[in-house]
Amino acid sequence: MPTILTKGNVYLGKSLFGQFSKFTAPDIDMATLEIKNAIGSYNLPTAINVMKSTLTLIGFDKEVFSKVGNPYQELNLTAYGSLDKYSNETLESSEQAKLVIRGSSQKFSLLGELEQQNNIEQAIEFNVSAAKLYINNVEKYAIDIPNLVWRVNGVDILATVRKNLGIN
Question: Closest by alpha carbon to 47, among 25, 36, 32, 35?
C-alpha cells in the first residue's frame, strides 16, 4: 500500500507561512565514540550531530522573506500534511502528520526559482535545535537539544541525564 503526503501547509507561529511543495525533516545523525579492546572495536552513541531542515515554499511572499532574512531570529515552524494510504486507486485511510521545528534560517534565496508561467518556488534551509513529530496528534518523536529533551514514542530517554545534572 503506497502512502503519500498531500496538501502541505506550514505555519510560522500561529500565522500561515505558506504552502510547501517539499519539506525535508531533520535527520537524526548520531555522533559516536569508538571503543577499542583486545579483539576489536565498537561505537557508542554520544550525541546528536547538527540537525538541518529544508523547506520549498510555493510562491514568493515579502512577509515570509522578512522573517527568514534575519539569521539571528528564532523561527517556530509547524508543517501539516495529510498522509494518505492507497490500495490501488482506493483511498484506504488518511492521517494528519505534523512536524514542529524550532531553529533559524541558514540559507535562503533572495527571490526563489523563477520560470515563466509557473509558480515561484522559494527554498529555505534551517538550522534546527528542536523538532517534534506527531501522527494523528500523538507524539512520535521529540528532541530539544538545548533543553536536553529526547522522547521516542513517549519514553523520555534523557530523564536520568537531566536528573544527574540537577536540571529537573
Answer: 32
Spatial separation of the C-alpha atoms in residues 132 and 122, rounded to whole Å: 24
> What 3-state DSSP class applies to 25?
coil
The three grid cell numbers given for residue 8, joined into one nine-digit string: 502541505
Going by their DSSP bridges, the two strands 90-108 and 40-48 should be labelled as: unpaired
pLDDT band at 116 (very low <50, low <70, confident <90, very high): low
Q: Distance between CA 135 and CA 55 in Å, rounded? A: 19
Question: What pLDDT, in 10s, does the model give residues 27-49?
Answer: 999 999 999 999 999 999 988 88
- Looking up cell 527571490 gives 111
CA 142 vs CA 12, 38, 64, 145: distances in Å: 19, 38, 26, 10
Q: Note the pTM of the prediction, 2 decimals.
A: 0.82
CA distances from 49 to 30, 72, 111, 119, 127 (A): 6, 21, 30, 35, 11
The stretches of the chain forming alpha helices (DSSP H) are: 62-68, 159-164
